[in-house]
Amino acid sequence: MQDKLTCIVLSIQLWTSELVRTHQTAEHICATSRTIHPELNELDSGDYDDLTYEDFERLHPEEFAAREADKLCFRYPGGESYVDLCRWVENRICGKLNVAW
Question: What are phi and psi of 43, to 5 degrees?
Fold first, then answer.
């Protein structure tokens, strides 16, 4: 039995974030083009980036409650929301592919 599977190269552009786990997944996909996009990294939690969820809840209880009530629309101070992320996907990815979602 072969040690590696035969790779069929797909004529696709593969986009990854800068995160190691995305590169580990992408290495199993045979693509003709690979591009790293920092914008695909995890959601930017802005001013709270260095906080654990426990610290966030303890230090900023009102904002923590607002996030719990509406994770889709909650925007971290100095950061972004999932709505922001959706807009980025729509403008950058769908625009390049000329598709709507």
Answer: -50, 135
